[in-house]
Specification:
The protein has about 260 residues and is an alpha/beta fold. The protein is built from 9 helices and 14 strands.
Length: about 260
């Protein structure tokens, strides 16, 4: 039952080129940065990544993208990464864009053993009708487009069939975890982490604080250990190494005027 491994490098050692990865996080919040760095250091390539977004140019999944280790990504939001845009538009990267709620449900359903589900999101658009560019040619023409999906009416409303997602591995980050793999996430850092963990056949969690079995109240656990196969305890320095994607502050002069 003790799922703790000694290092991030050891935890990702069996991830091979061509593997599929579900990766937790939203923007730069709650991303498994140490596990991503270990995957980068391992040298694997041709990865198929499922994540809400793809980091920024020099952090998170962005380091794998910049090294051209990612062949395909399934995401909802990719607007903060210039290298992502360049690779997609020049035909170096295959991209499946998915409505955010649909992506969340595809991951959750995959973890629950549900092969597919119907949703109203995307009906009447290219999400359902097909034709969304997945990969471009170098000259800007479309090399591969999304296929049309099955639609069906229930009670007078049209729905589109979406396939669930499972991946070879999942990488997630938690505030706290025990040796059995039970995890607790911190506020908004919870985001896609539990869903990604559920979808992975082998889920690896980096935790900021490792505790002993029984230390976590059953009512406080966000993800039960049945979904987690490996746990990596971060050092205090690694736990504190967090980035802010974009900081917006009020100019001092404006703030003073507001007080007056």
């Amino acid at each position: 039952m003790d799922k703790v491994v000694a290092s991030a490098a050891q935890a990702v050692a069996d991830i091979s080129s061509g593997a599929s990865l579900a990766v937790g996080g939203f923007g730069l919040c709650g991303i498994p940065s140490e596990l991503i760095a270990a995957v980068h250091a391992s040298g694997v390539s041709d990865l198929r990544v499922v994540s809400n977004n793809c980091g920024v140019d020099d952090w998170g999944l962005g380091i794998l993208l910049s090294a051209k280790r990612i062949a395909r990504t399934t995401s909802s939001y990719v607007g903060e990464n210039k290298e992502f845009e360049r690779q997609f538009l020049t035909g170096e990267l295959e991209v499946e864009l998915v409505p955010q709620g649909t992506l969340a449900e595809r991951l959750r359903s995959g973890g629950c053993g549900i092969p597919a589900f119907f949703t109203a999101a995307g009906v009447g658009t290219q999400v359902a009708d097909g034709g969304l560019p997945w990969r471009y040619n170098a000259d800007g023409s479309i090399a591969l487009a999304s296929p049309a999906k099955e639609t069906r009416q229930y009670h007078g409303t049209e729905y589109v069939l979406e396939e669930s997602i499972t991946t070879d591995f999942a990488l997630v980050r938690a505030l706290r975890g025990d040796r059995h793999g039970n995890l607790v996430f911190h506020e908004s850092a919870r985001n896609f982490n539990p869903l990604a963990a559920m979808a992975g056949k082998i889920t690896i969690a980096e935790v900021e604080e490792l505790v002993e079995p029984g230390d976590l109240s059953p009512d406080s656990i966000h993800l039960p250990g049945v979904f987690v196969q490996r746990v990596v305890a971060l050092t205090p320095e690694q736990a504190e190494n967090k980035r802010i994607e974009r900081r917006t502050v009020t100019p001092a002069s404006t703030a003073k005027e507001g007080v007056a």
